[in-house]
Amino acid sequence: MSGTLNKVMLIGHLGDDVKMHYFEGGGCLGRFPIATNESYTNRQTGERVTNTEWHNVVVRNKGAEVCEKYLKKGDKIYVEGRLKTRQWQAEDGNTRYSTEIHVQDFTFLTPKNEHPGGYQGQQQSQPAQSDQQHRQSNQAIPQQPIGQQQDGDDLPF
Amino acid sequence: MSGTLNKVMLIGHLGDDVKMHYFEGGGCLGRFPIATNESYTNRQTGERVTNTEWHNVVVRNKGAEVCEKYLKKGDKIYVEGRLKTRQWQAEDGNTRYSTEIHVQDFTFLTPKNEHPGGYQGQQQSQPAQSDQQHRQSNQAIPQQPIGQQQDGDDLPF
Amino acid sequence: MSGTLNKVMLIGHLGDDVKMHYFEGGGCLGRFPIATNESYTNRQTGERVTNTEWHNVVVRNKGAEVCEKYLKKGDKIYVEGRLKTRQWQAEDGNTRYSTEIHVQDFTFLTPKNEHPGGYQGQQQSQPAQSDQQHRQSNQAIPQQPIGQQQDGDDLPF
Amino acid sequence: MSGTLNKVMLIGHLGDDVKMHYFEGGGCLGRFPIATNESYTNRQTGERVTNTEWHNVVVRNKGAEVCEKYLKKGDKIYVEGRLKTRQWQAEDGNTRYSTEIHVQDFTFLTPKNEHPGGYQGQQQSQPAQSDQQHRQSNQAIPQQPIGQQQDGDDLPF
DNA sequence: TTTT
DNA sequence: TTTT
């Protein structure tokens, strides 16, 4: 089955800090809004228009913890994920919909030059975490090692 | 300004035919739903689960006309565009949101072996339109030539 | 580290069957060429030009086996991966380069209506494999279960 | 025709300044290398490995001029484009290949806090250019207005 | 040749 | 609610 693709890629700024939710089984989930901007010149009026689009980003487990630890309101991030429209019953009995981006991968784009405890970053230094750590790929259980190896098998070619 | 990215890429099947809307100035707009599927095995129960996600696709002007002409319910398509969340006032006074994919580019993935007037397609032949025609790139006024040249200038390098 | 992105997405047709290579440790690797097309109208001459671009695709382990089993020359596929430029010493002593797409994910786009042993596919049915099976995500050791769960944890949100 | 996709998306740092080439007809072209990084832990040895991948980026006309003006070695950029493998005859008579990324869109990711003449940027300020200007979409002739409107038509939907 |  |  399938033969389909559902992919979203965003570069934008966090409109708020990461909000965490913890579950009984040990899982967790982080949510934050990302803003993207679009600018164009109105053909009729000639005036410059800027629109901001807001995206509801959802990240799980290990990835959520990394985001909560290193991201804050205003930071720039690249996120890649899937579109998912949740629905729920509103108090008035109507069905409501909310479209979210469920993150599969992300990378931080805001240089971190200062660290609380830490090694004064030069230039564009990133948090003290590996690519491995903040590249999350659909891992479902946080207790497990992340293990989304990228060609890490040293095959001889 | 900007430094942001807002990109969606989908491969899926049309859940319905293209619905057209025509505007006074000569512009038009087509809407259709696309379904994408996701399958996974539930860890607890071991059962196979398939989820279908529905996406509201919006395409404009020349691109809308091409889609209306060549696409029908059930067809497979690749679309690329931007996420846009519209809001409106519901009858109950509440603000409602609807997230749409505003198409910037698309290509048909359903082989068309039969044509009303025409040339029996070999293998995977596409509709009688060029890549130029169905590659729309943000053109705003349908009367204009589409003209989104792709390296079509024969520069000597 | 990192903060970088290296992503390629292709939809195209196989120019040849999948060529497999097996390694001692149990790993394997499949290679095949994919063609993409680009069309445009030359501005000076007004003539229609079509260019074909060839891409060297490399897929590993479980994914390679799935591709070898279900793909053949002429089939259409979506592949997603990373650009990697290999270099080697040519016989003449010069360094040569070859750029490859190392696959991280793929999905088949050619409808399979007939199967050797098999269940006549309805509509657009795909090979007898799950999304799980042909969605490979960087798994390095084929003996392992693939396990790239996509939200398969039934978290209550 | 077509029904294919040829897309590359990179976030990386410039390994060198933009090299410009000007043509007789008024067109121009800029070239620069982009580095992307990949990190993983070798399974056998447990050691951390970082690989750098180099990409040959080619940007045309107006986009090239914007890049030359605002980008320098070390800057971070997002580029989106198509893979294109050039071939040429080497002196030894052999055919050589070089794979390039032909840019269709880009956005700068290095904050510009200082400007030659200018307004001291706060935080993450970008160059004095609009999204319109550095979003190039296949425009072929630089004398023309760029005009890749993004929904700039104020249609009432 | 970049960056962390 | 971000950023430029």
Task: Give a quick summary of the entry.
Chains A, B, C, D: Pfam families: SSB. Four copies of one chain form a homotetramer. With 157 residues, the first copy, chain A, is mainly beta.
Largest sheet of chain A: 5 strands, mixed, barrel
Give me the CATH fold name of chain A. Answer: OB fold (Dihydrolipoamide Acetyltransferase, E2P)
Which strands sit side by side, in order, in the main sheet of chain A?
1-3-4-6-5
In CATH, what is the class of chain A? Mainly Beta
Q: Largest protein interface?
A: B-D, 40 and 40 residues
Q: Tell me the helix content of chain A.
A: under 10%
SSE order of chain A in H/E notation?
EEEEHEEH
In DSSP terms, counting alpha (H) and pi (I) runs of 4 or more, how many helices of chain A? 2
Gyration radius from CA atoms of chain A, angstroms: 19 Å
- Counting copies of identical and different chains, the oligomeric state is homotetramer
Average predicted local confidence, pLDDT of chain A: 77
> Approximately what portion of the residues of chain A adopt beta-strand conformation?
35-45%
Compute the number of structural domains of chain A.
1
Q: Could you list the spans of chain A in which at least 5 consecutive residues all have pLDDT below 50?
A: 114-133, 137-157
Task: Give the CA-based shape of chain A.
Answer: globular
GO molecular function (chains A, B, C, D): DNA binding
Region (Disordered) (chains A, B, C, D): 109-157
Protein name (chains A, B, C, D): Single-stranded DNA-binding protein
Subunit structure (chains A, B, C, D): Homotetramer.
